[in-house]
């Protein structure tokens, strides 16, 4: 079981201002409430027992059910953490239960938002497959504006996880910098939360909620869209970006915070200071994801081993030298120098030289403005049909004839 701070979730929410309107974690199975539609993935590890697409029998809305064994301290911590977090760029907790009755063999589940546009990993693999054996001048690139959108969304999520700063916070980076330097901050205001497993597989897409009235009052709602983009990292024609999978997340004052850490996470996306981790480590992982997105590298950004390397590939992935010079590759000539510069800052080898999340967000905002002035954001903004297929119609609010209208997912 997670330590007492997490187990006493009401106290945790009271101390740090976490939302109190979430459903409580039930103590019995919720199978009667949800209907399993199909599996979405197999369990990873002995205590993770599968992921399923389910439908609420009463409302008809679809969700994702992640089953696990409650004897796993990390997975119970994930359930409690997801119930507490509340941010537009973090996967939303819907429901959950921990059933420890003998006849039920200790079962537990968390129910989350369903993201119909799948993951960033799916996107990377499709672009990589499409561009194989195609001359460079005919390749399909991911638009820079969409990459800035993803970059900003992840920075907003980290700003919240690390320092409790919500998207509509008006304080400047300088004010926040002074605030978080106070040693009392992470004890009395917000527990620093590390994700520790940021990678394309854990970055999901779902449809952004459109603003009604755009057709009749375009000028007024264009301002709303622009404000929505600035605050939430959401632009109407783009899907919302959600950071998911908090199975390895760790909060300040968790019992495991100062324990000697092993190589947990996905080696190809881990920072050079591994296995140690702090807020700068999540920033490196975000930079690696954006670099992979620009370079279309679905298998990670770790360099191949040198010719004189005598150990296996896993040993090389754990070696800090496998990450040296990654940032020097750059995002490629298709993208702006401003985007390259921000990614470059995230991937600095020394973690103390990387920007904190709120500084990164300011750099992203400034960099995007400069890139727009230079015309880098006005290229092909249409997603190719092979990327999401019919899902793109739903993204833009179009309905294809002959299809049954389904209730929107939460």
What can be said about this structure in brief?
Helices cover 35% and strands 12% of the residues. With 410 residues, the chain is of the alpha+beta class.
List its salient traits.
410 residues, alpha+beta, two-stranded antiparallel sheet, 14 helices, 35% helix, globular
What can you see in these coordinates?
With 410 residues, this protein is of the alpha+beta class. It is 35% helix and 12% strand. The protein has helices at 4-7, 9-16, 73-84, 120-131, 144-163, 173-180, 185-189, 218-232, 279-295, 313-317, 337-346, 357-373, 385-388, 391-395, and strands spanning 34-41, 48-56, 62-68, 93-99, 107-113, 193-194, 203-206, 240-243, 250-251. The strands form three sheets. A five-stranded antiparallel sheet has the order 1-2-3-5-4, covered by helices on one side. Strands 6-9 form a two-stranded antiparallel ribbon. It has a two-stranded antiparallel sheet with strand order 7-8. Helix 5 runs antiparallel to helix 9 (279-295), helix 9 runs antiparallel to helix 11 and helix 11 (337-346) packs antiparallel against helix 12. It is globular and about 55 Å long. The protein starts with a helix and ends in a 15-residue tail after the last helix.
């Amino acid at each position: 079981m997670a330590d007492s701070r997490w187990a006493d979730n009401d106290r945790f929410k009271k101390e740090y201002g976490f939302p109190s309107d979430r459903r409580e974690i039930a103590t019995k199975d919720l199978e009667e409430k949800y209907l399993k539609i199909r599996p979405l993935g197999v369990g990873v590890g002995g205590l993770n027992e599968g992921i399923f697409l389910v439908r609420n029998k009463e409302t008809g809305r679809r969700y994702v059910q992640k089953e696990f064994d409650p004897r796993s301290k990390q997975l119970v911590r994930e359930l409690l953490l997801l119930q507490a977090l509340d941010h537009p760029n973090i996967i939303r907790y819907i429901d959950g239960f921990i059933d420890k009755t003998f006849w039920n063999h200790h079962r537990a589940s968390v129910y989350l938002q369903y993201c119909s546009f799948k993951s960033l990993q799916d996107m990377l693999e499709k672009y990589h497959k499409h561009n194989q054996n195609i001359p460079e001048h005919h390749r399909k690139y991911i638009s820079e504006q969409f990459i800035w959108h993803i970059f900003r969304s992840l920075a907003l999520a980290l700003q919240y996880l690390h320092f409790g700063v919500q998207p509509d916070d008006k304080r400047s980076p300088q004010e926040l910098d002074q605030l978080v330097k106070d040693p009392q901050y992470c004890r009395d205001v917000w527990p620093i939360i590390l994700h520790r497993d940021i990678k394309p597989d854990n970055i999901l897409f779902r449809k952004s909620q459109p603003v009604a009235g755009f057709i009749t009052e375009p000028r007024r709602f264009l301002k709303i869209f622009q404000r929505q983009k600035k605050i939430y990292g959401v632009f109407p024609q783009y899907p919302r970006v959600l950071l998911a999978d908090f199975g390895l997340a760790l909060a300040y004052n968790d019992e495991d915070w100062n324990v000697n850490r092993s190589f947990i996470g996905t080696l190809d996306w881990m920072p050079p200071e591994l296995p140690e981790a702090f807020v700068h480590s999540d920033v490196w992982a975000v930079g690696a994801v954006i670099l992979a997105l620009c370079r279309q590298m679905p298998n990670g950004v770790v360099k191949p081993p040198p010719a004189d390397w005598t150990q296996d590939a896993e040993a090389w992935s754990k070696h800090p030298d496998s990450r040296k010079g990654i940032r020097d590759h750059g995002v490629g000539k298709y993208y702006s120098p401003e985007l390259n510069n921000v990614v470059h800052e995230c991937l600095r080898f020394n973690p103390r030289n990387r920007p904190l999340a709120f500084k990164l967000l300011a750099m992203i905002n400034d960099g995007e403005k400069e890139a727009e002035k230079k015309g880098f954001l006005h290229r092909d903004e249409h997603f190719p049909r092979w990327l999401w297929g019919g899902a793109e119609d739903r993204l833009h609010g179009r309905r294809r004839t002959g299809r049954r209208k389904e209730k929107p997912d939460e």
